Amino acid sequence: MRVERNRWIYDLVYCGECGVHVPVFRDLAPSDQTMVDAWRLRKTPSSQIADETGLSKELAKSWKLHRNKPIQQKGQMNSTPCPECGRWLRTPCAKQCFHCGNKWHD
Q: If both were cysteines, with which of 17, 46, 49, 76 could 61 make a disulfide (CB 3.0 to 4.6 Å apart)?
């Protein structure tokens, strides 16, 4: 899923190893790339990353935890949000949300 907030464009990629969605920044201006590289090297608080990029604090934290390692994917598994609670489903074809219990099986 590609998202654009202000000047920040990122894809949400599902990490199959830990089960969270991680933002992956795309098409960064040189000054923004320098900033992201600095975040990788320093222990930048996730709240500061969220403020700078417009990410939610949850997504900023997941980026921070994955910033220096490759994301382990299960077959390029990108997901969609639950229509009831808005939290991410485990797979793109899921028919049940394990967060709120909503089901929409055939």
A: 46
pLDDT value of position 75? 42
β-strand partners of 5: 8
Question: First CA to last CA across the chain, in angstroms?
Answer: 25
CA distance 95 to 78: 15
- What is the residue extent of each domain of the chain? 2-66
> Residues 74, 78, 84, 87: is their CA dihedral positive or negative?
positive
DSSP symbol at 68: T
Q: In what order do the strands lie in the sheet with 2-5?
A: 2-5, 8-15, 20-26
- Report angle CA 7, 53, 48 to the nearest 5 degrees: 150
- Stretches where the chain sits below pLDDT 70 are 1-6, 69-79, 106
